[in-house]
Queue: 3 jobs
Job 1
Amino acid sequence: MEQQSIFETTSQYIQNTLSPSKNTDALTVDTPLIQSGVLDSLTLFKLITFVQKSFGVKIKSNEITLENFATIGAIEALVLSKQQG
Amino acid sequence: MTIPETCDVVVIGGGPGGSLAATYLAQSGYHVVLLEKQKHPRYAVGESLIPDFWKYCDEAGVSEQIMAENFIVKAGGIVEWDGASKLLSFEEWEDKRSALHVERDRFDEILFKNAGVKGAKLFENTSVDRIDFAQEEQTVFYRSTKTDDSGAIRCRYVVDASGQNAVIGRHLELRKMDSDFRFMSIWGYFQNSDYLTTTGEIHPAADVATVAPTTYITNLPELGDWGWAWHIMLRKQTSVGLIVPIEATKQIRQESGSWQEFFLNQCACLPMLDRLLTPATFVPDSVRLVRNYSYRSSQIAGPGYFLIGDAAGFIDPIFSIGVVLSMYSAYMAAWAIDGCLQEREQESHYQEIYSSQVEGRLDLAKALALPGYDQIAADNQQTQMIAKLASDQSQKLMQSASLVTARPHNFDALLPTK
């Protein structure tokens, strides 16, 4: 399933690469990423690069919002809408 | 070592922003040349750092060296505004990393040398005369400040980290003075000053390594809602400075004579500052000043260039955010240039993200620093979007910062739901 693969790929990247020191063991589709500080001003952009490369999409400037990056679920929805659109 | 004829990126200026941008790009495998006009260690002001700066140093692999230097750890800030004294304590926010007071000559030198260790080619005593911008390639003309040597280096991107010199900003006439900030800054150094702890106790300078000091900030009640003063304990000296409206200085200075006299008179007018400086001796000839205090660049990225740090814009650094903003823009510029170099056809895409993110941050800093900025902030969607991208904890920090200077309207306008 493509939907599951976006979630798994993204959560693995966050766990292994971005926040190894933070407690990200139990990332779900609904875990707050930005408000909780798992993603900060620096790691958010590493993730954007990763998402662009992994899923073949372009994140536009005005799409870098809390709504689109608040959770892995939100990121997944953004990627899917771009892949379909 | 001679300056090469070509490279991927030339960084102008070896302050914290320039050194970090060069480091990040070198770590990504790019061929980076960093040109610094002076020679490290060299003097710089802006000694107070909030804990946010660590993540940029972690990324550059330089945090251990900064720890080993044993800079002064600060416990927070005490802000006295219109007579009411409030504490901003970092401990309350569960930040495990320390805020620091650093001697910038040493701090900047550590970051600069680290850029070399990570693979950037460093050249000191080298100033930039001009840059020719072209579609595919930029040519940077440089000159030695010690000899008659001069030359040119061709590169794909130029990062302007030249601080208030704003080499590209002046060259392309991008700089706009900020009419909201008709300020100047004047500062100097003392030895043996007392200081305040987070509990409001006064300690002698000899305790500074064992009992953590605060950054003490006070407004200047006689000069309206604008001016303020800082008191920052360093290892051997204390940095004391004033931000004053330019209009106010004209009249006051006529009465005072020299800038040094003006500075010392103003310090003596502020009761707590005067109290802390009672046992202190003024370091002779240490007074410096910056006029035309605040400016922005109308454009912070364009074909072939990115402006970072003070070269992009300089904002009242009331909450010790100057260096961290510079580091942030360094990181974003490196991120954007990496994108541009990997996908040539996407240059405008990465430049747009860089510009909107960094300009949003500058506006956010301005909203926290300026009185009466609420409506401007409320009308600016990009700034609100950036504010929402901050974690709950940093939003709380911003909110309490705006509260202690009696400017909560600005913050409320940015994040109405909080």
Note: The interface with chain B takes residues 34-37, 40-42, 44-46, 49, 58, 60-62, 64-66, 69 of chain A (CB under 8 Å).
Job 2
Amino acid sequence: MLKKDPDKHNSIADIVCKLSLARDLDSIMLIVRNAVRSYTCADGVTFILRENDHCYYADEEAITPLWKGRRFHVSECISGWVMIHKEAAAIQDVFADDRIPYDIYRSTFVKSLLMVPIRSAAPLGAIGVYWSKEYLPSDNERNYVQAAADSAAVAVENVRVNMHLRNQIAELEHERHHLAEIIEGTRADERKHAEKALRESERDLKRAQSIANIGSWRFDLNSGIVVASDETMKIYGIHENDLTIKQVQTIPLPEYRKQLDDSLKNLIDSGVPYNIEFKIRRPSDNAIRHIHSVAEYDSDQMIVFGILHDITEQKIAEEQHWESENRFRSFVENANDIVYALSPDGVFSYISPNWLDYMGERPDKAIGKRFEPYVHPEDVKVCREFLERVFETGKKQSGVEYRVRHCDGTWRWQISNGAPLFDNSGVIMGYIGIARDVTEQKKMEEALRENEAMLQAALDNSHAGVAIASAPDGKLRYVNNAALRIRGKSKKEIVEEIGIQKYVESWQIYHVDGRPYKDDEVPLARAILHGETCSKEFIVRRDNGEDRIVWANAAPIYGRNGNIVAGIVVFLDVTETRRLNERLRQAEKMESIGTLAGGIAHDFNNILGGIIGYADMSLEDVPPGSILAKNLQRILDGGERAKNLVRQILNFSRRGNEERTPQYLRPVLKEVIELLRASLPSSIELKSNLAPDTIPVLADPTQIHEIVMNLCTNAAHAMNDEKGVLDVTYKEVVFDQPIEGRAGTVPPGMYSVIGVQDNGCGMDAITLTRLFEPFFTTKPPGKGTGMGMAVLYGIVQRHNGTVTVESIPGKGTSVKVFLPKCQEVRNVTVTDENAPLERGTERILLVDDEHVISDMATHLLTNLGYNVTIFNDPIRALKAFSENPDSFDVVITDQTMPNMSGLDLAKELLDIKTDIPIILCTGYSKLVDEEKALAAGIAGFLSKPFRQHSIAHKIRFVLQKKGHQ
Amino acid sequence: MNRVLIIDDDEDMRSMLLQLMERVGIEAIGARDGNDGLQQFDAFQPNLVITDIVMPGKEGLETIIEMRRKYPDVSIIAISGGGRVGPDSYLPIAKQFGARYVFAKPLNRNEFLFAVRQCLSTKA
């Protein structure tokens, strides 16, 4: 096979052009066979003409001779079959096709062939294309050969007409000569007839020339005169005949004159055929005309005889064709889009050059291949369906999107429109498509989609509420989930048809101070109406009355021409933040007060030291019972109160240095309750519900005692001594969430929860806020120090716990103290509160200057079965004891008392009765060194406040030491 | 003869304690701070030193440490109104450093006098 060289291919337009210039069959056959062989890379091409029932193999070009000059009956050769059936035949194996006369082919190189009819309707002949190997020509090749054959048909027809006319002209000319001879002859009648015949003949000739648009001319070298036929004169636009050659030669355009001269000279001198195209300026109307002239030279008569043909219209048509073809080619080759054609079975028959730009390979590599390998496997189906739609409907289809594989392996997106290609008879012969590379667009679309998805996800999952409203009506277009959560309503309720006039009503917006908002004050409204970017804090009130503090920032959204097209508001629920900030502010305030109080306490103690000391000494110098003595006593009392206050301040602000040990709290609470029963007015019903302890709390029991006392005192005060219920509860609770309390947030875990609840007057919001502030009190002057809850706050914090307070004015208050359980309970020795209380019936002398304490202790001891005698003054106690020492089995005395300390009293008592068991109760004073006191004869110590188990145990202990049972 | 050295920067407190000592028949002198107290110690030779903790100049804890080193036989009672800046009490520390008794101000007279007598009747 020949090697294909695309650059040497003749386009069909080239063939048409060349054929239009061909004036004889040989030229036509040469043009066609060369073009076809070149295009198809065939090993041979034949040109067959039909001659009635025979096929004449008129011409051939092949690697070895075929059948040139031979004739075969139409029934015995494939060219005949093609002409009869008026359709092409492509045969891959000639020896497997019964249309082939094998004998004729056996001696040839032919293995495959393509035979196409010259002109489908009434074929003039056929063109045969042959290959020495098995080969099936592509659709593209078939189409090309058929187009060449069709073009050849026109040319052959033209040549035939031309030949026919030439022959006719020659015959007429011959007859004219013959008649002229007759005229020259002697017989007048004959001449007459002859002249008549000549005139008729000349008239016929003229008519023939006129019909064929062909003129004739004769140049007599002897005379130098050119004789032109009427048609020639008409074509040349001249009115005179018998012009000289010089005159004639002025009519062609100057650029052709030399060529005409040379051709004429070559014809006359060397017999070179005169066949020339040129242009003339027609003298009659100055029109430029294309002329084709052919001439022969009669050397005997020295006459040049020629014909000429006005081919202007044909040339114009050709030029228009060229122009159209060029325009199309330019369009296709310069277009951004790929133009391609497919055969009905999906094989590329044409691809525009920019295929290279988009696919990375030359288009000729793809031509002849099916489209599927180029298309992404997932998209092949949609492409096939698209093609089927084109073929089924016979109409243009558009918009199929698919991926194609670039030669670098990447996938590119294309979108294609396509239409069917029809042949002259209206039958679909293929598909033409135009494909656009939309990869970048797709990437952008994908990026945009991803961006949108990300934005949507961000908005959906944001904790910040987002609302977007259109301008200028402010109708809500978008509200995210967080916004709905903040408002506490569904989308349907607060988004649909909500414009600026309904913002406040729908979203229940209030100023932070509680005033209602105006519609046009809402940030989103301001952004939409005035283009303002503004931030505000306001309240959104939920339907259940819950207020959420919301911080909102709104901004306008501008359109391309600068007008406001929408507004956006982003808002945060800052309720918790504000609450935490307030709590932090409170905590900082408490901290600073604590620090300040600690500092003040030092100076206060010094001052009090002086006041109390001097007053105490002065009291000794004045007569008892005098006014001065009473006044000094008041100073001392005031000093004591101040001393206690400072102690409380220090207790509130103390850090560290406390000895906390694992403690079960239930016994502490029981003691407090016992104490309370003795001191609360009977109008207040005291209830308690104390659950058993399982794990101790690392605590200072004295401090726990104090906070519960403080809470209960406050509760009693809240009930204002009127009828009420004070409920003290204790339980152990495991929390799996952090507990948010007023003394901070504590982590999940197991907690002892002490609850004190009353149904008293409750607290308003301001009181609740300031509850833990030192010196804040609602009690009348002199009734409270305002340190009780502050001390509680300090103690709870130091115990790593927290406290919650719920209060409704007029309904009551509930305070819960949360204290964390010990992490490790190993080696913990605590009083077993479940063990039975040790009881007795002995007589006890109890000495304590504090009435409350002595009352409470009496209550405890009486409950245990003892016989108790109380003294609030140690001097009187000493007196009573000295008068009747044997009436007491045990003495329990407070250490810190006015006039005489517990230790002093003990020494006096021991002087009277050496074996009297004395229990010394110490509070905060560290004066008494236990060891030394024991050496001095004190039988035991008790820490205040008392706890039932410990006092019961201690009494039995000292009695046992003295030998009592 | 029992002698008591009272160190306190608070003049009222110092003079009140001096008067109290005088009332119970104990010879006493006052000092403004630790330095003053140490200076007067050699001349006065007290049996008992009562010292405040928070003082300008030489403060009480340092004074106790130095007294214990220089005069190991002397008894010391520390008194304090609490920290000036922080709320913590220094008294437990004073006890660790060698104060035999510690008292928070304002003082309980009976307890205080008991301690003073204890200190004067027995050696530190």
Note: The helical segments of chain B are 11-23, 34-44, 60-70, 91-97, 109-121.
Job 3
Amino acid sequence: MKYFLLGVVVLSTVGCANTYYYQGGKKQELEPVKKISRTTDTYDFYKTKSGAKVGVSDTMLVKFRNTANLEFYVKKYNLTIVEELIPNLFEIRVANKSMTIDIANELYEQEDIEYAHPNFLQEVQKR
Amino acid sequence: MRYFIPLLVLIFIGCGGGGSGGEKEQEPTLPHSNVKKPVAKPINDPYFYQQWYLAKNNNFYNQYSINDKAHVNGGEYYKLYRGKGVKIAIIDDGLDVNHPDLQDASLTTYNVHTGGTDVSQNGNNSHGTKVTGIIAAQANERDIFGIASESEILFLKYYNPTNPVELQELFQKANDFGADIISNSWGTKGNVTDAQVDIIKYYVNKKNIKGNVPLIVFATGNEYIRKESDESAIEGVIGVGATDERNEKAPYSNYGNHVDIMAPGGSLESSFGILSLYPTYLGQGKVLANEAGTSFAAPIVSGALAMLLQANPNLTKSDVEYLIKTTSDKIPCNDNYVGEYGHNIFCGYGKLNITKLLDKALGK
């Protein structure tokens, strides 16, 4: 019986593995869901706590406080810089979209990076 | 001790700037307009009388018991200033460029998804045509009167859902175009990300190719809630809420400290929407539509700002912000207007009053 309970606990922990991203300095939880309209397998879809669905591709957005270590991060995580959107905000591609959230979160925690998060696909609301 | 008292005096002087102190800031001196007063043109659009949000038509107002002051009071200025020489970028879901009342409009288009110029709407979408019609419907003998029908329009079609990279491209296109005003009747469903905030903040302050900082207008949304975390709440953005035919805040109009100005958005509860254009390809000869929401208040403000910039192109962004604060009508609202210029979380600095706005900008 105790093995059964242990198994339930382990399985439930795996099922609830915390997926999150940073926004405004706070962790925002993400729950995997089926894809929404537009496209393809280029996106994985998640639901935020507010119920909005977001798509995650193999690109992320990283804002540097300074870019001195940019090349270091590129090599460390096998990244490709796509373009600088506005000063110090870069669109960056990761090697595999399954890594986008984790790499963005690791970058977010670096002192020379102001923020990092996936290049989220989000629904537009007409007003 | 003799040194202590002067030191205290210095400390108090140093703290004086940020408080309210009861004294008004010195009013800015507005730049003089060097624009010659244009020749007045008539308004012959057959459905102008139903555009209750622009002007009062006695019969129409009486028939439907509309509050006398529900309109934005453009008066004679509608005949003089129609946005000539002013560039407006409109970001929305698509546009019927073949609408008969847009045929003589100055329209440039861009589709962020395809990189081309086809901005046709998909499916039953009609939002972008309705929004654009409020600004750009031509002053002629058909349909409705667009508030800034002589302005140059860049219509930018977003793809839904979208991402911050496309958002940046849209705003950069507006910047390249030299947009004086960027009109947005949309918001992100869900959280606005750090990158979205940063991108919009960047373009709030980025001079366009004409050397001007654009006026970025956003609708505040229709969820009946206090919401201060979307695009309309970004610093430097002009947040537009909606009023209805009672000349009161429309119940649906989101509110908060970020609301700057109100304009008619019509009523969701009654049939009093904002009359505008309807995509011709959607059906059965219908060319006009009535719809309500802050989406339709925002282009009224954008169009009025185009009238303002035509009348006085020397105004800076901070001049325009000052004019909004000091000329908007303090309509009855759920709360008091507080602070130096009278702000209210439900109704901002009040409702757009075009005659007061242009009078002040022209030194009258």
Note: Residues 2-15 of chain A form the longest helix (14 residues).
